[in-house]
Amino acid sequence: MWALRRSANQFKIRSEHVYALRSAANLLGSSKCNEVPSGEESNHECSVQAHGYSIGRSISFAVYPGIPRGFASQVTGSADKKEENKDEGLSELDLPPEEASVSDSDINEVLDLGSEGEVSEGESQVESDFPEAEVEGDGASKRLLADIIHCSYKDVQATVDKWVGDGNDLNRKEVNYIIHQLQRGRMYGRALQVLNWLFAKKSSMFNESDHAIRLNLISRLYGITRAEKYFQTIPSEMRGYKVHQTRLVNFSRAKRVKQAEEVFNKMKIAGFTHCTFDYNALLQLYWQTNKRKISELLKKMEGENLKPDIFTYNHLIYTKGVVGDIVGMEQILETIKAEDIQIDNQTRATLARSYIRAGYLEKAEALIKELEDNATAKGESYGLKILLDLYADIGKASDVERVWNAINSFPKISHSYYVAAISAWGKLDEIEKAESMFEKMLNSGIKLASPNAYSALLGVYVKHKLFLKAKEFVKQISDNQIMIQPSTCDTIIKTYLELGDVEKADAFLLKICKLKQKRPYYRTFIAILEKYAEKGDIANAEKIFDNLTSNGYRGRLQSHECLLQAYLKAHTPAHGFKERMVAAKLRPNEKISAMLKQVNAFKKERLQSNSSDLPD
User: Cβ(322)–Cβ(354) under 8 Å?
Assistant: First the structure.
C-alpha cells in the first residue's frame, strides 16, 4: 500500500481549475441585475459533529460546460479572500452577506438528497468538509426548515422566534437537523443565523461542536481573518479537538500553508490524536501549493499507523489520471482492492474520466456501466446526473437520451437535472436539444432561483462560438432578472471579448461589481486587463487594475505584469511602478524586471527628445 508514497514523488503536476456553478443557496445578494448593454483510529471522531450534524457537505455540482475538469472546486470557499483586511470582529447581530430566495425545487433537492451526497470529479473529503452523520428530521423540523428557506433572508431569526412563540418546541435534535440540512444545501448564511439565534436564546445548549460549526461558517462567509477573531472569543474549555480540526480545514481552504501546519502540529502537542481526515486536509492543501510535500506527508501518515481512506485514494487516483499516468492510477486501484476498500461512484467517475482523457474508451465505458448498475441498485438518483455527463464525454447520444428518459420518470425533477442535460447535449454538439431542454425546464413549473441553467446554456453557445446567440441570451438573462454568478459573469465577459467589444465587457463588469454580489473571478478582470494592455490603453488598464485590487485581488504578479504591458505597448514610462509593487509586498520576477528596464528606457528617450527640442 505504501508504494503510494513512493509514487507521490512524481506529483509534479500542472493544476487545472474546475469552475462549479453553485446552487441558489450559495448566492450572495438578490439585487436586480440591470439590463446588459447590447452585455469543508483515534480518541476522537474523525469529523466535527454537533450531536450528529456535520460541518457542511457539498451538493449538486453542475460542472461548467466546456471547462476542463480538475481537482474539486479548489480549496477556496466562498469568501477566503473577502473582508480580509477588516479589523472589526463578528457582532452577534452582524448578518452574513444576503443569500437569494430559494425555490421549491431547491428545497426538494435538499430534503431528498441521498445520504452519500453528490460529488464532482476530484472533490475530496475536505472540500465537502467533514464526513456526514445520519441526521433525521420529523415533520415539524422539516416544516420549520421550509419556513427558514422560504422566508426573507433577514427574517431567519424572526421566523424561528415565531415558530417558538406559536408554541412549537425546538429541541437539540431539531436544531441539529435544520443546520445540517442548510449546510447540505450550501445555505451557509441561514445556517449561521440559526446558530446565532441558538447562542442568543438558548446559550445553555451551545457546545464545542456548535462553536466549531460557527467557526467554519464564519470562515466561509467572512473569510479566515474574521474566523480567527471569533476563535479568540471561544471559551478555553470549548477549544477542543473539533474546534482545532475546523481551524485546520479553514486554513486549508484558504491555502494558508504555514498556519495550517501550525494548527496540525499544535493538535499533536496538545495531546490530540490525528485521524486520516486531518491528513486529507493537508493532502489537499499541498496538492494546490507544494506537491513535493505530498510524499513526506504520506510517510508521516504511515508513521502514525494511519491508513488512507477512500477520500485519500480518490485524490491520489485523480492526481495520476489528470496527467495521463494510467499505469500509476491502476496501481492505486489495485492497492484499494487489496485493502478491501469499497470504491464509490466518485472513484468510478474519476477513473472513467481519466480513461476518456487518455483515449481508453472501452475501459471507460465498462466503468460507466458499473457506475450505472451501482447507482440503479442503490436507488441513487444523483448518479444518473453523473451518467449524463459521462455518456456525453464518450459521445453516446443514445445513452444520454436513455438516461434522461429514466430521470424524466421521476415524480419531481429539480433544475439541476436539466442543467446536467443541457451541458451533456452541448458536449455532443446538439445545440437544438440543449435549447429544447432549457425550454422544457422553463415550462416544467420549476421556479428557478439559481442561474445555473442559464449559465449552462450560455456556456454551450460560447463553446460553439455562437456569439450572436450568446449576446441575445445575455439580454434574456438580464430581462428575467437572473442573478449573475461569477461563472456566468466570466462567460458573458468572454462573449463580449470574442466579439471585440472590450468597452461593453468593461461596462458589464463594472455593473456587476456595483451590485455587491459575489465578486467576479480574478481571471475575469485579467481577461479585460490583457485586452487593454494589448492596445496600450493605460487609462483603462489602470481603471481595471484599481477595480481588481478594490475587489480584494491584491499582491499578484500577473496583474502587475499585465498593467506594465500596457505601458510597454504605449511606449510610456511607468513612474513609480517598482515602488507600487513594494507597497503590495511584491518583488519583481525576472520577466517583470526586464519589462521595467524597457519602460525606464522610455523615460530616457523622452528626456533626450525634450532636450533636443530646446533652442540652441
Answer: yes
Q: Which residue has the cell 453523473?
A: 386
Closest CA to 246 of 258, 229, 233, 228: 228
Please answer whether residues 306 and 276 qualify as being in contact, where contact means their C-beta atoms are separated by less than 8 angstroms. Answer: yes
Angle, helices 139-150/172-184, rounded to nearest 10 degrees:
50
How far apart CA 96 and CA 157 sit, in angstroms, is 13
pLDDT tens-place string over residues 527-566:
999 999 999 999 999 999 999 988 888 778 899 999 999 9
- 214 and 90 in contact (C-beta within 8 Å)? no
Neighbours of 14 (CB within 10 A): 7
d(CA 15, CA 539): 33
What is the spatial distance between Cα 212 and Cα 225, in angstroms, rounded to a whole number?
Answer: 15
pLDDT of 466-517, one tens digit each?
A: 988 988 888 888 787 777 778 888 988 988 898 889 999 999 999 888 876 6
Q: Which of 71-80, 91-100, 481-490, 562-571 has the lowest mean pLDDT?
A: 71-80
Q: Which amino acid is at 99?
A: E
Please report, in angstroms and rounded to a whole number, the separation of the first and last CA atoms in the chain.
84
What CA–CA distance (Å, rounded) separates 239 from 260?
A: 16
Residue 168: CA atoms inside 13 Å, Cβ hemisphere, count? 17
Decide if 109 contacts 414 (C-beta within 8 A): yes
DSSP secondary structure string for all residues of 293-333: GHHHHHHHHHHTT----HHHHHHHHHHHHTTT-HHHHHHHH
Contact 291, 10 (CB under 8 A): no
For the chain, percent helix, then strand, then coil, each to nearest 5? 60, 0, 35
Residue 391 corresponds to which cell in the numbers above? 455518456
Q: Give, in order, the Cα–Cα distances in Å from 301 to each of 231, 278, 306, 312.
A: 27, 10, 6, 11
For residues 529 and 545, is the Cβ–Cβ distance under 8 A? Answer: yes
CB-based contact 107:52 (threshold 8 Å): no
The answer, yes or no, to whether residue 112 has pLDDT greater than 50, is no
Please state, in angstroms and rounded to a whole number, the distance separating the CA atoms of residues 113 and 301: 33
Closest residue by Cα to residue 297 from 271, 261, 330? 261
Q: Give the DSSP H or E segment for 53.
A: strand 53-54
Query: Measured at the alpha carbon of residue 397, what is the angle toward residues 392 and 402, in degrees to the nearest 5?
Result: 105
Torsional class of 445: left (φ above 0), alpha (ψ -120 to 50), beta (otherwise): left
Closest CA to 67 of 17, 103, 25: 17
Are 22 and 471 in contact by the 8 Å Cβ rule? The answer is: no
pLDDT in tens, 288-335: 888 889 889 989 998 999 988 888 898 889 888 888 899 999 999 999
CB 393 within 8 Å of CB 359: no
Give the three cell numbers for residue 471.
449576446
Residue type, 458: L
Cell matching residue 610: 525634450
